[in-house]
Amino acid sequence: MSTTPTSAFPMDFAPLTELPEWQRFVQAAHACPGQADGMDLIEAPGLTLDASGQRHSPALLAAGQALLQARGFDEQRRRLLAGEIVNITENRAAWHTVLRAPTAPPEVLAERERMDAWVRRADTERRWRHIVHIGIGGSDWGVRLAVTAFGYAGTWREVRFVANIDGHAIEGGLAGLDPRDTLVVLVSKSFTTTETLENGTRAREWLQAAGLDPASHMVAITAQPERARAWGIPAAQVFQIWDWVGGRFSLWSAVSLTTALSVGIDVLAGLRMGAAAMDAHFAQAPLAVNAPVRMALAGVVNRSILGHGSLNIAPYDSRLVNLVPYVQQLDMESLGKSVDQAGRPVGVPTGPAVWGMPGTDAQHTFFQWLHQGSDGAPVDFILCCHADHHWPGHHRQLLANCLAQREALMRGKTQAQALAECLAEGLSPEQAATLAPHRVHPGGRPNHLIALPRLSPYSLGALLALYEHRVFTQGIIWGIDSFDQWGVEYGKILARGIVQALSPTADAAQDATEHDISTRHWIHQLRG
């Protein structure tokens, strides 16, 4: 891996809005009649992407390819996949793809085998009936997603997740467990994460109160193994990740120890295989049929040209309930930036707000807004063609709802159609004229349909890598650093000072100089 601190972009690269290629891309997007006239299917490993619900034309695709070329996309993609510096503000690579590569470096393969051996030994000995996974953000969401997706019907090990600093979280996470048969998994890349270490301390006290040696009931996953050892975790129970693995991309590393313990080493291996196949597709497929690239171009059109402020994720599979926050973190931490890598305003709207929930629950919650709200939002519909349960009628209804909601968003309903519908129902002309405007649907709402053959580790791995590379490509177009998160850091720094100010022994006079008037009021009210 390269350690040369060179920028992913030359520092004199042009602002996006000054590029003639950008202007042509904008013009081509506006010239599109709307959604594609015919089918626009893209086959990729583990899934099929139907982009028929997005603006598409030969001119727009050609303009998008020219824009990517102007942004040096081929070179930026090569740098990402080769493990070179792509996070310029922190001088780091973002080499998560190597964690799932068939020919990973020896140190990666060795750590993977060490973790697998530890899990196999625990399985053979039937140890750890209960797992308490303590981590937050990227140290939580990917593992939670995989365990929920493939352990939804239950496994012989019970897994509980504790992320929040709220004391109720750790209290509930430990409640009712037998400490003698409980393993606590601490996950923190830096091993300084406040929430994780505080919750870990409570778990350690809980083990000690039961008369147990916490060292024999705790493991750690971190890029700072010496800190974990100093905290009291034996070296044999500390598993390594690396500085070039961003938290929101760490599912592919030893962070998934809990996944392996819960749903099996084979599931984790399948996730890696699917993601590696999507990596190869992203690296090799022509741009016109490159699924992550096509999703990225559509995303830029929807956000920066059409002005949609959010993206809805609608997985029509209840096992993917945690896909929404997973993609939310991936997208919003990566693309929630407003300056480019040269420190200039990007000049166009960037990363959308990402939200959603599984269908059909979503239909009874916010689909009214998607259909008839004044703004609406692009939607990523996700379905599994084949179910893994024994009730085909349920699955037919699930698929029908997914396809119907998507069709309604695309087709819409005109005033004339609504009026004819009302008259056909037997309403008087006056009643029909009154009701018809309420039944009008604008239609033309942008969407993707992502179809997995079934929910397997391979297909889920491919799906997650699809989103990773879509986010990376959008960042390249906007010219932003998709791998830092300085906004989060600022709040953490302020929180450290306020924690001290909330102490009963804090100097109240110091508050007056360090905080605004409202914050000073609440520190005074809450101190104690």
Overall description:
- The chain is of the alpha/beta class and 528 residues long.
- The chain folds into four domains: 16-91 and 283-411 and 449-478, Glucose-6-phosphate isomerase like protein, domain 1 (Rossmann fold); 101-263, Glucose-6-phosphate isomerase like protein, domain 1 (Rossmann fold); 412-444, no CATH class; 486-526, no CATH class.
- 47% of the residues lie in helices and 11% in strands.
- It contains 20 helices and 13 strands.
- It has helices at 20-31, 58-70, 73-82, 106-124, 141-150, 167-174, 194-209, 225-231, 257-263, 265-284, 291-305, 323-335, 367-372, 392-411, 415-424, 429-435, 457-478, 486-501, 508-514, 517-526, and strands spanning 41-44, 47-50, 85-87, 92-93, 130-134, 158-162, 182-187, 218-222, 238-240, 310-316, 353-356, 379-384, 447-452.
- It has a six-stranded mixed β-sheet, sandwiched between helices. The chain has a five-stranded parallel β-sheet with strand order 6-5-7-8-9, with helices on both faces. Strands 3-4 form a two-stranded antiparallel ribbon.
- Helix 5 links the parallel strand 5 and strand 6 (158-162).
- It is globular, with a radius of gyration of 25 Å.
- The two termini are 50 Å apart.
- Residues 1-5 have low confidence and may be disordered.
